[in-house]
User: What shape does this take?
Amino acid sequence: MSTSTSPSNSSLGIEEYYGCLIPRSSKVDAIVFAKESNRKTWTIGRGEFNAAVLPSTAISLTHANVICEADMKGAALMYIEDVSTNGIWINGQRIPKETRTLLKDGAAVHFGQLYEHNDENRDFRFIFRLNDTFAPPPSLSGSRIPELNKDYDVLERIGSGSICQVLLAVERASNECVAIKLYQRGKNFQREAMDRERTLLQHLPGHENLCAYKASSVDAPESKVGYLVFEYVNGMNLRKFMNEHKNAPISEVEVQHIVLQICKAIQHLHDPNRRLPGTPRALLGAVAHADLKPENILLMDDVSTVKVADFNAVIFAGETLNDVRGAEAYMAPEMAHPATVDHFIDNYSVGVLAFELLTGTLPYVNKTPAPPTAQARIAARVAKNLKAALRTRSAEALDFIERLLEHRAGKRMSMNEALDHPWLDGAGRSARSKGKRREVSNEEDDIDMRPASPMKDSAPADCADGDNSDVDMRPASPIKRITESSSSPTKTSGVRFPKSAKTDAGEPVFPKPASSPRKSRTSTRAQAEKPTSQRVTRSMAGAAGKGK
Assistant: This one.
């Protein structure tokens, strides 16, 4: 293939082109749409006169026109027009002929008939990338792992930390975007983190509120790099969601919806009956996530679906810790003596998350000057007056959070109890179980308790823990995707790309749940571990008799 109007790919800087078609085959060149004077249209076909030549009889003399225009803000919009006989396919669907179709970042573009390709020289499948969302084409050749390059087209790095790097890629077999966590197995702590995460996920059934595990590398003794493959969650994490609401309240109903899904995910981890056949003995007990924090809670389509991610800090039943694990701001009090912890540390973290969503702050004050160690800082915390802090929220919310933030792990509410709690139970939960979208009322009367001065676009000051080891599985700013002017479905038969953060249905709206009386706060660890179906429902009269 030639790109006669474009300079060599290796000489291009990101500022020198509008976009690029990255080939699926290593035997086919990239097609770069360079920023040349007065040039806004490129032709693609088998004829030598085209800007890009695809030498095959399956390709028309002139197969496609690619047009670049600017939007109202001056950003480039790239369109493709089919003028061929055998057609152009985007995300598995043939586009209308002689009609402009918007090229979205990440789109799978196929020139010619849609069939299996045995000849890499005639495999004209590409991934389209806009110039402002990724590094120049030479850096997109993937990692140095042959196995990874065989099955995936690596598009860009979207996160990094001391534990691993995270890559955005396209799985060739399905055309689905995936997130790949890349570990340096030569480093002991990275190898242990990867093995811990993989061991759990290979024996844990999938759940709608857990980031789905898809595959992993086959490790050879000499292998220095390993990877885990997950679904790509196209949205934002909970930290970014809270930062976007720093000047506006998050309604209590929205918080209920988010916390409900977090509790479902954690209950799935804690339940020893949720294991696949052949599970090792170490996984037959309750497993603690041990690193619940806003950065590890992913939101799809705003808050319609919530997923818990990042399992490389999990604690298996009976495991003894020599040091703290997780993000300090969300650690339970017993982490001051980490050798004694169990899965109830997650329940405390959920309470911290719920409190932070409702108030914009953490439920305790750190001692100043700060003690030198994490254990000492945890032990020195001073709890806030929860009733005063949550005075504008419902009585059920206060009771829910109080029972999760119980200092004594043995008295703390279990995930089964949390899911049965009046704050999460009721009409709102029933509507969600039927697959209905919740709606946010424009007449919300909740009062926000966030500080008068906006939170900074980062973790709260009192949650800074110096822990930089965790990696968000999405870009810091999500990959830009331009709304199409013509119909080009996001999901087709056998081919799927992530949905945009907003659907045609608009923002999710949440109904106000019916108020329910508070439950008795008395519970025992034995009651906590009983399956929901075996526990006797508390009587409404008994709960009401206790008073609020």
Summary: The chain has a mean pLDDT of 75.
